[in-house]
């Protein structure tokens, strides 16, 4: 029994911890790469010229998901997520302050399947949806929608 089943438990546990560590290291490394680009900094945040973003049917953008603690991260440029509700579970993402310090943010969204979400974000201003929280402080926000995505506006 031990040989065929239980001996794998220790390996699984160490791999999980290792992958979490790897994800965190990836986030740190990516933030370092951004810093090496010598971006203009305002209030400690990079001023990205243009961010092209999409939205998920649940209103997520980047890897910022509704109700996730990463929405409150106001310290890191890039953060690790190890419990994403959408596969893959381990990812890295720009944080909301980075998105909101961009000079220009453009959301690109297509299809009727996103129409309810687009309405909830643009018309209803549903702040439970992370894409609604993208509001550039000194920049501009643009939406590029096809007829299907805009059909409920």
Automatic annotation (TrEMBL):
Gene Ontology biological-process annotations: carbohydrate metabolic process; pentose-phosphate shunt
The superkingdom of the source organism is Eukaryota
Residues in Glucosamine/galactosamine-6-phosphate isomerase domain copies: 22-143
Parts forming coiled coils: none
In alphabetical order, the GO MF annotations are: 6-phosphogluconolactonase activity
- Pfam families on file: Glucosamine_iso (PF01182)
Give the protein family. Answer: Belongs to the glucosamine/galactosamine-6-phosphate isomerase family. 6-phosphogluconolactonase subfamily.
Full protein name: Glucosamine/galactosamine-6-phosphate isomerase domain-containing protein
Taxonomy-wise, where does this protein's organism fall, top ranks first?
Eukaryota, Metazoa, Ecdysozoa, Nematoda, Chromadorea
């Amino acid at each position: 029994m031990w040989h065929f089943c239980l001996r794998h438990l220790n390996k699984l546990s160490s791999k999980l911890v290792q992958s979490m560590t790897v994800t965190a290291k990836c986030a740190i490394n990516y933030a370092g790469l951004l810093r090496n680009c010598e971006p203009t900094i305002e209030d400690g945040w990079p001023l990205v010229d243009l961010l092209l973003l999409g939205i998920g049917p649940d209103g997520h953008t980047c890897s910022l998901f509704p109700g996730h603690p990463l929405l409150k991260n106001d310290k890191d440029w890039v953060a690790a997520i190890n419990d994403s509700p959408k596969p893959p579970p381990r990812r890295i993402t720009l944080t909301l302050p980075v998105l909101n310090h961009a000079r220009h943010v453009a959301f690109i969204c297509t299809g009727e399947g996103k129409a309810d979400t687009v309405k909830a974000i643009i018309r209803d201003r549903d702040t439970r949806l992370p894409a609604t929280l993208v509001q550039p402080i000194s920049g501009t926000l643009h939406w590029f929608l096809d007829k299907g995505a805009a059909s409920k506006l």
